[in-house]
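Q: What residues go here?
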C-alpha cells in the first residue's frame, strides 16, 4: 500500500475504542512520523497502545475554559484535529480549527459534558437536529478549512452506503447506471426510485465470555457515548409520504426542517426492522446525525421552500445481547447510568459479527439491504486494537481524512456532501463482506394474527404503522 504524505501534525482528542483503533490505520495509510502525532484525552485508557506506537499521550480533560490553551501548542495551520471524544464540544473545536487554519473531522457532533441531559434545556435543544444546525451555522460562502462533521460508521459511512445502494437499485430496476454528480441529482434519483423509508439497520452479535452482571452496562463501543445517545430524544428524518405525525412527535421550526423528534428517549423507542443476519428484529430508534443528514440530502424542492420529496430515515439498532440487557436496565433506572461500565474488545469471543447497512424500502423491489458484514475474527486479522464494531468506524475515519486532505478548503461539510467513491475506496477493505440483499419483508408482516392491532392505513412504509414504544 502506498502511503499518502502528510507533513503536518495530527492531534487526536479522545482515546477510547475508536481512538485506539484509528492509530494503527493512521500509520498504515499516511507517511507520518510518530513525533507528529499527539493524543489529548480525559483518562488513561489506551496509554499502553500510544506507547506501543511511540505517540505522545497527554492526560488532560478538555473543558470550555481550557481547550484553547490545551490545543494551542499542537494544532495550527495545516494540521489535522481528529475529535474522537465524548463530552467535548464539536462546535468549539471546529471554530478553533477554522480560526487556526486546521483540518477537522469528528465521528459525532458532541456538546460539552452534561448538555445531553441538562433538564434546564428543552427536549428540542437536546436533539441531534439542534447540534447539527449549530455546526452547520459555521458554514461560510468563502473557502474555509475543511471540517467533516459526523463521519464515523453511523453517522458517516452509511451515507456512502446509501449512494451505492441507490446506484445498484437504479441498475436493477432499469433506471440506468449514471452516477449523480450533485445533491439535486442524488435526491431526484431517490425520488425516481420511490424510496419511502431508509433504516440504518444494524445487528451486533458479538459477545464476551464474562456476561453482563446486574448494575453494569456492557457494550462493544463507547458506553458513555451510547448512554448519551440513548438519553437524547428519539429522532428521525421525516418523509413526504407520511400522513400524520406519530404520537408525541414534534417538528422543528428552523433550519432544514428535515426531521422530527419524539418526547421520549431513544432507549424507550423500539421499531420493527430487518437485517440479513437476523431477518425481522426489534431495534431501537437511537438518535443519530445520519437520520437527519440523509433525509436532508435526499430532499427534492420546488424553489427554496416547498418540499416535493423526502424519505423517512432513522437508525434501527439491535446492539449486542449484553448491551440489550444493559438498555433494559437503563430504562428501569429511568436513564441513570449503571454504577459499572465495561467496554468489551479484546475479550470478545470468536464468531460474532457486526452487520451494519441501509435498508431502502418502498421501491418496486420492496426492500433492499446493503452494507457490511464484519466478523470479530476478520476485524482482528485486518487491524490490531479493533473489534468488528470499531473497525467499521475507524476505516471510515481514514477515508474521510484522505478526502479532507485532498480538499482542504471545503469548509463545514456533512458526510453526504463528499465523494462517496473516495471514502469507499479506502474503507471497503475494512468492511468485511459487502452485501446487497433483497427481501419481501414489510413492517406489517405477522401483524394482527394473534391479537388485533389498530393499523391506521394499509401503507406499510408509513411510520405510525410500525413504531413500538
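A:
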Amino acid at each position: 500500500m502506498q502511503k499518502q504524505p502528510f507533513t503536518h501534525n495530527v492531534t487526536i482528542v479522545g482515546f477510547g475504542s475508536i481512538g485506539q483503533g484509528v492509530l494503527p490505520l493512521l500509520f498504515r495509510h499516511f507517511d507520518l512520523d510518530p513525533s507528529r502525532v499527539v493524543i489529548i484525552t480525559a483518562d488513561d485508557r489506551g496509554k499502553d497502545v500510544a506507547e506501543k506506537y511511540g505517540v505522545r499521550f497527554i492526560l488532560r480533560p478538555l473543558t470550555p475554559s481550557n481547550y484553547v490553551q490545551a490545543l494551542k501548542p499542537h494544532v495550527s495551520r495545516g494540521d489535522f484535529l481528529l475529535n474522537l471524544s465524548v463530552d467535548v464540544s464539536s462546535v468549539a473545536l471546529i471554530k478553533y480549527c477554522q480560526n487556526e487554519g486546521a483540518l477537522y473531522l469528528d465521528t459525532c457532533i458532541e456538546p460539552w459534558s452534561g448538555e445531553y441531559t441538562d433538564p434546564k434545556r428543552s427536549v428540542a435543544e437536546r436533539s441531534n437536529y439542534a447540534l447539527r444546525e449549530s455546526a452547520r451555522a459555521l458554514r461560510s460562502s468563502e473557502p474555509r478549512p475543511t471540517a467533516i462533521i459526523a463521519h464515523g460508521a453511523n453517522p458517516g459511512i452509511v451515507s456512502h452506503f446509501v449512494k451505492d445502494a441507490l446506484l445498484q437499485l437504479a441498475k436493477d430496476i432499469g433506471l440506468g447506471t449514471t452516477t449523480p454528480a450533485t445533491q439535486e441529482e442524488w435526491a431526484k434519483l431517490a425520488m425516481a426510485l420511490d424510496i419511502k423509508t431508509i433504516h440504518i439497520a444494524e445487528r451486533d452479535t458479538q459477545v464476551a465470555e464474562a456476561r453482563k452482571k446486574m448494575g453494569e452496562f456492557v457494550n462493544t463501543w463507547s458506553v458513555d457515548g451510547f448512554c448519551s445517545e440513548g438519553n437524547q430524544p428519539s429522532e428521525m428524518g421525516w418523509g413526504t409520504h407520511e400522513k400524520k405525525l406519530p404520537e408525541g412527535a414534534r417538528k422543528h421550526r428552523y433550519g432544514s426542517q428535515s426531521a422530527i423528534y419524539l418526547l421520549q428517549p431513544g432507549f424507550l423507542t423500539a421499531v420493527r426492522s430487518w437485517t440479513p443476519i437476523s431477518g425481522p428484529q426489534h431495534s431501537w430508534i437511537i438518535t443519530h446525525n445520519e437520520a437527519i443528514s440523509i433525509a436532508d440530502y435526499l430532499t427534492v424542492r420546488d424553489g427554496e421552500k416547498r418540499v416535493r420529496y423526502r424519505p423517512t430515515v432513522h437508525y434501527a439498532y439491535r446492539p449486542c445481547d449484553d448491551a440489550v440487557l444493559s438498555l433494559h436496565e437503563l430504562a428501569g433506572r429511568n436513564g441513570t447510568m449503571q454504577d459499572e461500565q465495561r467496554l468489551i474488545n479484546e475479550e470478545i469471543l470468536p464468531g460474532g459479527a457486526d452487520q451494519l447497512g441501509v435498508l431502502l424500502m418502498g421501491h418496486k423491489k420492496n426492500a433492499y439491504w446493503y452494507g457490511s458484514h464484519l466478523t470479530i475474527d476478520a476485524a482482528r486479522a485486518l487491524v490490531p486494537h479493533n473489534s468488528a464494531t470499531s473497525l467499521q468506524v475507524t476505516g471510515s475515519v481514514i477515508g474521510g481524512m484522505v478526502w479532507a486532505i485532498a480538499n482542504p478548503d471545503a469548509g463545514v461539510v456533512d458526510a453526504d456532501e463528499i465523494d462517496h467513491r473516495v471514502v469507499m475506496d479506502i474503507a471497503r477493505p475494512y468492511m468485511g463482506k459487502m452485501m446487497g440483499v433483497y427481501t419481501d419483508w414489510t413492517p406489517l408482516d405477522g401483524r394482527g394474527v394473534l391479537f388485533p392491532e389498530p393499523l391506521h392505513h394499509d401503507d406499510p412504509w408509513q411510520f405510525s404503522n410500525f413504531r413500538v414504544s
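A: Context that may help when evaluating the design: The longest helix spans residues 388-406. The first strand starts at residue 4 and ends at 5.
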